[in-house]
Amino acid sequence: MVSVKDRAILREIAARRMELAHSARNEQLYKDWVAYGASKDGVRPMIRIEIETFEHELLPDLLRCEGEHARGIETKLLRPMINFTRFEDDTIVPDYYPVSMHTSFVPFGLPVKKRETGGLGHHFIPYLTELEEDDHLLGDSVFTIDEAGTKAEEEEIGALFGDILPAKRVTDCAYSVPTQDIVHIMNMDDMYIAMMEEEDRFHAMMRRLTDDYMKFFRALEAGGHLRSHATLQHLGQGSYCFTDELKEGIEPAKLSDLWLFMDSQETAGISPHLYAELVFPYYREMMEQFGLVSYGCCEASHPIWDNCLSKVKNLRKVSISPWCDEEFMGERLQGTGVTYLRKPPATILGMDTPVLDEEATLACFRRTAKAAKGCKLEIAQRDVYMVGHSAEKVRRFVELARIGLEG
C-alpha cells in the first residue's frame, strides 16, 4: 500500500518526468537514437551511464517517500531523470512507466545459494563438483510467467499516477547466460576441469540448458506475452534496442521480432578452441531463433571473434570491454554495421573521490575514438560502484568523453 502522502509525492515526480519527456532536448535525443539505430556507422557516438550500481551514493538525498514500496517506485521514476538532468548523457526519459512481464527461470531447478562476504563480493555455494558423481542432481529448469502479477502492477501504477504518466507493458530483450548459470551451481575451476575431463557430460548439461531456455522463450511466445522491441527497451549492457531492422509495436510478437542478449564471462579462462567446441554451438543455436543479438560483458571478445562471433549473421552489438583488444576489434568491425559497444574501465569514474582524473579520461576516449574509427560506436559505462557522492563528477566524465571521442 502507498500512503496518501507518498502518492502525492509520486504524482509530483510523475508530472516532472512527463515534462522532461516532452522537452525539446529529450525529443531530440530520441531522434538521435532513431538515426543511430538506422545507421550502419553511427550518426554520432551515443553515451550512457548505468546508474544502478552507484545510485546509493546519490539517491538517498533525493528520495522523499516514506514507505519502502513507494520508495521503490520513486527510484524507478527518478533513474532516467537523474541521468538526463544531472549527468546529461544520452539517456532518454520515457513518457510512460515501464512494466515488464513478471517471470522467473531457475536453471535445472536448483535455486542459487550464496554466502555474502559483507561487501560487494559473495561466494556461490556449489551443488556440483564432478559431473559423473553429481549430474543426477540436475533436474528440469523451472520457469514461471506471472500475467496476473504483471497486470496488478500495471493497475497499481495506473491508480497512483496513470492519468499523468501512464503505465506501459514492455518486453525488454530476451536474456540467456548459460555459462553463468553453471558457475552459479558449480565452482569455475570444477567447470573447467569438467570441460577437459568430462566433455560428453558437459555437452549434455549445455544441451539440456539450451533446450530449457528455448522452452521458456517459446512459452512466452505461445502465450502472447511478447511485444516487439526496436526502440527504448533495455538491451542489457546499458544499451537500448534502437534498430530499423525490427518493427516496433508488434503484439503479440515472435522471438524473431526480438533482441537477445548473451555473454560468457565465465569462459574467459579457456582457449578459443574450447569455447568454439563446448559453448558456442549452443549459444549460436539460441541466437538463430531471435531477430537480432547483442553479445558480451566483461570478457574479451577479440579471441573468439574470427572463429565464432563473426559467424553470427544477426549479431548487431558486441561488448568491447577493458580486457578487449580495442584496435583488433576496431579493424574487424569497420563497415560491418555491428556496434562497437565500448565499456570503459570502471576505475576512471569509479573512484571514491569527487575529483575526476581528466587526463586519464580524455586519453581513454581518444584511444577509443582512434581504435573505433569507421565503426558504429556506442559507450556504456557500467560496473561503477562509487563516484565520491558527486553527480557533477559523472557529468564532467560525460562531457570529457564527448570531447575525447571527437578526436
What would the keywords be for this entry?
TIM Barrel, 407 residues, globular, 14 helices, 13 strands, alpha/beta
How would you describe what is shown here?
- The protein has 407 residues and is of the alpha/beta class.
- It has one domain (4-405): Alpha-Beta Barrel (TIM Barrel), CATH 3.20.20.
- It has 14 helices and 13 strands.
- The strands form 4 sheets. It has a 7-stranded parallel sheet, covered by helices on one side.
- A hairpin with a 5-residue loop joins strand 4 and strand 5.
- Helix 7 (188-197) packs across helix 8 (199-222).
- The model has no long low-confidence stretch (mean pLDDT 96).
CATH architecture: Alpha-Beta Barrel
Please indicate the percent range of residues in DSSP E strands (runs of 2 or more): 5-15%
Overall pLDDT level: 96
Any low-confidence stretches, pLDDT <50, length ≥5? none
What's the number of helices?
Answer: 14
Q: Element order, helices and strands?
A: HHEHEEEEHEHEEHHHEHHEEHEHHEH
Radius of gyration: 22 Å
Number of strands: 13
Shape field: globular
- CATH topology tier name: TIM Barrel
Helix content: 40-55%
Task: Please give the largest β-sheet.
Answer: 7 strands, parallel
Number of spatially distinct domains? 1
